[in-house]
Structures are given as C-alpha cells and as structure tokens.
Amino acid sequence: MSLQFLNRSNRVKALDFHPEEPWIIVALHTGTVSIWNYESQTLVKSYNVSNTPTRAVKFITKKSWFIVGCDDKHIHVYNYQTDELVTKFLAHQDYIRCIVVHPTLPIVLSCADDRTIKSWDWSQLDNESQWKNLKVYEGHSHYIMQIAINPENVNVFASASLDGTVKVWTLESSVAQYTLKGHRNGVNTVEFSSNGMHLASGSDDRTIKVWDYETKTCIQTLKGHSNNVTAVAFQSGLARILSGSEDGTVCSWDSNTGKLQSTVKYGLGRVWAINTLKGSDDRAFGFDEGTVVVRGLEQNEENTASRL
User: Fold this and answer.
1) How far apart are CA 246 and CA 250, in angstroms?
2) In this structure, are residues 292 and 265 in contact, taking their beta carbons and an 8 Å threshold?
3) Any idea what the Cα angle at residue 61 is, between residues 58 and 64, rounded to 5°?
4) Helix-strand-coil percent breakdown of the chain, rounded to 5?
C-alpha cells in the first residue's frame, strides 16, 4: 500500500475518480471544484462553481463533462476539455446532497434536503438549459443524503436518509420497493457491493450495517467508530468495506466476517467522502483539511499514516 497523493485544502465534501485518466475531482465546501492528477501531484484545472458549498460531483466521461450539485440548489455541468459551462439549472428546492450517473443510460439521479430524488435525462432539454426531469421519487421524511445504483441491476438504486432508513427503488416507480430499518439515527451513506448482493449503510448511530439485497435483512453490524459514520464503500474486487467517520478515521473491514482489519487516522480532520476506482485498488478520501489517494493493497496502513 502506498500513499499516492495528499493535498491540503478546505473541506472536501465529494470526490470522484476519472475512469481513464489518473485524475481525482474534488468538490469543496467553499464552492470550488478542482481536478488533480494524483500521479504527477499536479493541479489539472480548478473551477469556481458557486459561492455556496458544493456537496456532489461526478464525471460523465463520454461527454467530457463533470456535474456538480450545490447548496444553491442547482446542477452545474462543465466540459472539462473546453472549460465551458454547458448548462446550469434549478434542480431542487433545497441543498443538493448527492449525484449519481447511470452507467448505461443518459440518466443522472440527484437527491436533496427537499426530501426528493429526481431522475434527469441529460440528452434532452425541457427548455434552453434544464435537463428533462423524468421522475420524482418521494417517501423519505427527512433529508436524503446519498443514493447508489446497483451495479448488477442498474434499474435499481438505494437511498440513505436522516429519517433513519435506507430505501430501495426502481427507476420506473416513484414509490420505493421496500425500506430497510435498523439504524437508531440518521443514515448518511449507502453503497452496493460490486456483485449487487449486499448494501452497506453508515449512520449517526456510529455503526455500519450490511444488508442482504435478496432477503432484505441486516446480516452484520460493524462497530468501531466513535462518531457519526459519513461514508462507506466496497473496495473493488476485494472482500473489504471502507468506512469514514467524523472521528477522523478510515476503517477497513472484512466484508465476509465483519472483522475490523485496520484503522487509519490521517490527521486531516473529519472524513466526509470515500471513492474507489472500479477495477483497481485505488481509493480516495475527503477530509476537513484535504484529499488523500491511496494505491495498492494495504499492508500495515497504521504505520504508513503515522509517517504523514
């Protein structure tokens, strides 16, 4: 395991790997979005997107775009080759928390503090600037913090809410298929395993729960954080779950046994975001004070972190 990249900055709220270039895109609480080359340790480009916090960012590489969700309630779309602002439109009635890009269809899902999830067709415009809104998904009773698409059944997605639940939906229906209940406090984050058979959710109750997608039951509760769990991810190709917390630590768990494998504190404050590169061991973490990219299989991560 090697620390590939460390950049100190203002609070990082979201990040995303480019699937082909050695780039990580970082959305800051200041409203700035930056693209970094984590191999050369250089800034590729930086954009002043909004005068409000940016909380969501994703690449749409087939269009050379990145998309940003902000507290200004707008979705902003940029071409990272030309630096053009492609479009900007009012998407929600409150802060946008998360954006996900459908892997095969020209669809983006967004969720917000207005308690709705919306699907957008980025190949069609309703007017001169707004993407066509396909559907509004309602059912949560508090802020919706994150959404995740099932990689093995891309018609299905899950949502995490501060109402304490995870809901599972299909693209076609505005009503949830079912609701997963078990956390004692709000749920901040949800992610599917690469085979689509499990979900992991992280909560203000300081636990991570692993759910069986078929049986709709909680099969593991992972305890080890001392503050709110803000981010979870399944590491690509490995039986490993990564979690980040406001306690400032990143934990690695064996997803088969639920055993805590390592705890790393990078000294950059609270953890707000985790992203993994598909088909790779690379992972990125966003903190109060910067971004870390780690490459390779972990071996004694605690020793590595202590040397930072």
Assistant:
1) 10
2) no
3) 100
4) 5, 55, 40
Which residues on adjacent β-strands are paired with residue 56?
A: 69
Q: How is residue 141 written in tokens?
A: 């009773």
Bridge partner list, 191: 200
Instruction: Show Cβ contacts of residue 189 under 8 Å, excluding neighbours closer than 6 positions.
Output: 145, 146, 160, 201, 202, 229, 230, 231, 232
Judging by DSSP bridges, how do beta strands 240-245 and 156-161 pair with one another?
Answer: unpaired
Q: For the chain, list the domains and their CATH numbers.
A: 12-103+131-138 (2.40.128.630), 139-307 (2.130.10.10)
Letter string b/e over residues 38-55, b meaning 16 or more CB atoms within 10 A of that residue's CB: beeeeebeebebbeebbb
Matching residue, tokens 């599917």? 192
Q: Is 72 helix (H, G, I), strand (E, B) or coil?
A: coil
**How buried is residue 130: exposed, middle or buried, by Cβ count under 10 Å (0-12/13-18/19+)?**
middle
What is the value of pTM for the model shown?
0.94
305: which DSSP letter? H
Low-confidence ranges of the chain (pLDDT < 50): 300-308
Specify the residue for token string 């636990």. Answer: 207
Three-state SS for 117? strand
Per DSSP, the three-state class of 193 is coil
Q: Please, are residues 236 and 295 in contact by the beta-carbon 8 Å criterion?
A: no
CB atoms within 10 A of CB 181: 12
Name the phi and psi angles at 28, rounded to 5: -105, 155
Q: Locate 243 and state its tokens.
A: 């979690």
The values of phi and psi at residue 305, to 5°, are: -65, -35
The edge-to-edge listing of strands for the beta sheet with 217-223 is 187-192, 198-203, 207-212, 217-223
The pair phi, psi for residue 123, each rounded to 5°, is -95, -5
Nearest by Cα to 81 from 23, 6, 14: 23
Tokens describing residue 75: 């979705």
Over the stretch 168-204, which tens digit does the pLDDT of each residue have?
999 999 999 999 999 999 999 999 999 999 999 999 9
